[in-house]
Amino acid sequence: MDNEQSQRARLLTGAAISAGFAFLFLTKSGKQILDSAEPWLDEVIRDMQRLRGAAAKVRDAVDEGRRSFEAVSRLGSFGPEAQQAWTSEAKH
After folding, report:
1. What angle, rounded to 10 degrees, do the helices at 28-75 and 3-26 form?
2. Per-residue pLDDT tens over the stretch 12-37
3. With 0-12 CB in 10 A as exposed, 13-18 as middle and 19+ as buried, what is 29?
4. pLDDT-based confidence at 88, cuts 50/70/90?
């Protein structure tokens, strides 16, 4: 897309958004739509807040798991050398 087409697309998008807002806020039927949408929007906001809380809990759990893994990995090696050491000790 060249620059002129890009500008034209932005202009049309802005005009469409402006027309939508004008309809919602300046017409009687637009105000009725806004009034009926308000409870739905309140519910969406509550759901988003619950989702944010759940995401924070997941983030905390992942961080705790990472810290636990790092603490355990500092205690000893889990590579092939550790496997050989345990195998040779079991044979003795």
Report:
1. 120
2. 999 999 999 999 999 999 999 989 99
3. exposed
4. low
Residues 16, 40: Cα–Cα separation, whole Å: 24
Q: How far is CA 49 from CA 40, 61, 63, in A?
A: 14, 19, 21
Q: Band of the pLDDT at 71, cuts 50, 70, 90?
A: confident
E strands, 1-92, in order: none
Measured between alpha carbons, how far is 69 from 63 in angstroms, rounded to an integer?
10
pLDDT of residue 74: 82
Cα separation, 69 vs 35, in Å, equals 52
Under 8 Å between Cβ of 73 and 67: no
